[in-house]
Fold Probable succinyl-diaminopimelate desuccinylase.
Amino acid sequence: MTTSDTDPASIDVAASAAPDGGAWEQQLLGLIEERSDELLQLAGDLIRIPSENPAGDCTEVAAFTADWLRGKGVECEVIDAGDGRLNVVSHLDGAPGERHLVLSGHYDVVPVGDVERWDFPPFAGDVVDGWLRGRGASDMKAGLAGTMFVHALMHELDVPFRGRLSFAAVCDEEAGGNRGADLVLEQGHLDGATGAVIAEPAERSHPTIGQKGSNWFRLTIDGRPGHGSLQPLHGTSANLLAARAVIALQQLWDLVPEPPEDVRQLIADSKVYAEEREGYEPGISAVFEHVTINIGRVVGGTAANVVADRAVVDVDTRVPIGLSREQVNARVREILEENGIEARIEPQGFRSEPNWTLPEDPIVETLVGALRELADPDAQGVLQWASSDARVFRAHGIPVLQYGPAELSTIHGFNERCRAEDVVLAAKTYALTTLRYLGTADGPGADGAGDCGDGGGSGSSGSPA
């Protein structure tokens, strides 16, 4: 069985070895299939509401999300962080249980860019030839729609799950702001959560269960101005110093990480996945074992005939498991000193330590197990090199993984889209994960279904979160 020749709807999941609630599984999966047009309409409605970040105003999409939930009879709270940064949180409480699952996603999207370079309207939100189209189709309004849909279905059917099920739609993710998931978690809206699923884009068979650290910073380098005709005999060019710094900082690649023993197999599996599935050139898997350095922006000087008095360099480094941000930043300072470059170093943007959830954690095992039945028996969790709200959940001690429908090659680009069938698959995966992770009060073995156990955990720079 392969991903390409398997129809998720054709698998008799009700006959699987689910521990609890087989009848509920059958009913939920059947309804998601029957009402797939409604699910895709919801995804399209979200896409058609512009919520580009920057500027980051999510007022309209937050209002739509809250109104849609309330229209389904689901209570929710809108958390206003100002400047159009709004979050929507909803809770459903079941029978007594130890577990608390969060289904989450962000509804801000990156800017569409040059509209003329799209082959269809950027906010189309339609389905054409089996593809859901528009900004956010992959990142990540289709996935968010799936979590909303499942959350509402659990309420509509009055499924007797155990514990608590929460839904969180957040803002401020794309720009690394702190008024989305950070604020929701800091204010205690998701207190007690034992596991979370974020509907971030993922390859169809490979949820992401860990990510490199994110370490952005700005270098400000001062020179001594003078007449351009006398350079290099007079004046000190900040631009030349910046150029030297840019070249020297490539040495960060040579730092050697020392990952914890229990993560090394995950790293090895992720390297294989990257080479075989990601579609990049051979050798891309080295990204998991090195610090990457992107010189994103360089600004310096005032005119061609003036020796530059100041240069500013914005740098994005990503930190592999086995190193910390402080180790990377210490090496940055050493490199600059070795090259005689004085610079102010200021943290910017995304900042997080490497973070992960072990494959043995119950939430990972549950979702991956569901995905193996629905789509691919070889499905497994892997690492990613990007950053997301998962870092925030793990920082709060909440095991989390990411799985959502996507055409990965279109993320943050023109003509963003994802397969409609993958939107349906993701919703089914969320439904099975919810039922099996929380358990049902009327299913076989219900007495023990909600115990958390110690099947795994989250990590950050090698330490439990």
The CA atoms of residues 128 and 420 lie 9 Å apart. The chain is about 30% helix and 20% strand.
